[in-house]
Amino acid sequence: xxxxxPGIAEQQxxxxxxxxxxxxxxxxxxxxxxxxxTQSEIDESLYPRTHLLTExxxxxxxxxxxxxxxxxxxxxHFPAYNTDAKLAGLLGLSSDRRVRAFKDGSxxxxxxxxxxxxxxxxRVPQEIIPxxxxxx
Length: 136
Known about the structure:
The protein has helices at residues 8-30, 64-77, 84-90, 96-104, 111-120. With 136 residues, the chain is mainly α. α3 (84-90) packs across α4 (96-104). Helix content is 46%, strand content 0%. It has a domain at 44-120: 434 Repressor (Amino-terminal Domain), CATH 1.10.260. The longest helix is centred in the N-terminal third of the chain and has 23 residues, at 8-30.
């Protein structure tokens, strides 16, 4: 018995196409996320908004007051992430100590971690990177 299988390149193309289609569906589903009120713990107009920019636009880490207000607001609305350990897991961090360090200002969040949180909370759009070529 002989089973014909497509070549590796064809298999990779299939996987890439399937993943891209799944990503498009997720992006469309994201548009239906619930709309929640903004946090009211602090007056954000007193702080720079550079924490919402991309690195290319001049991003700088948010002030600890912003971090704490955003995190607590999120945790209030999403009980599944109501502890720093659960929030750390969502953000891809190995320790809740890092979340606490971000909140107290002893450590600034890395761009990727902060950007992930902003995307998860709909504060910024998700970046889509163009594929320039398929190189084997």
